[in-house]
Amino acid sequence: MTQSRILVDSNAYFRLAQSIHPLLGVEFGAKRYCLYCLKELQQEYNRSTRLQNTFSWVNDPEYVKNRSHLLKVTREEKLEISRANEFIYDYARNVYPGVSKVDVLCLAHAEQLHIPVVTDDGDMSSVADAYGIKRIKTLELIRSMLDCRYISIGKIREIASYWIYMNDRPRDFAADYKKLFGEAAPK
Fold this sequence. Notes:
alpha/beta, 10 helices, 4 strands, globular
């Protein structure tokens, strides 16, 4: 069975990588799920003082090494991703100007490689929906990890508590948590 690749956007990476380490390049479950992010995540991080202050661990060697697990893309796929990126970016710039260039590139990869993207960003999700790109919320991803016995419910509660502490909860957090895990979200 081939690997089931899943692309993680920057926000999902920042929310999960410290709690589930290594996050990227590790297969889990019978379907051999494997998470990846784009190398451009580092550029986005380097440009943002807010991200650097909030997620100071990102440049620690073990996380830099883990992010070296990149999607393998053929020359032809790169060309198609570039074309899709231009097209999606033109649309996003006009309709959802809050979507970053890295977000659009992430969507272009997901669209051309026919893989899901993990995102909680509202505008990015709207663009994904407009192009029929499969998207997964971060809580849905960790529910899949629980179903595969890759992580425990205790780990999920720990992650949720950390998000609350950091004041970095995904949109619809409490409702989605209750729906997915059958219990109220930690407070």
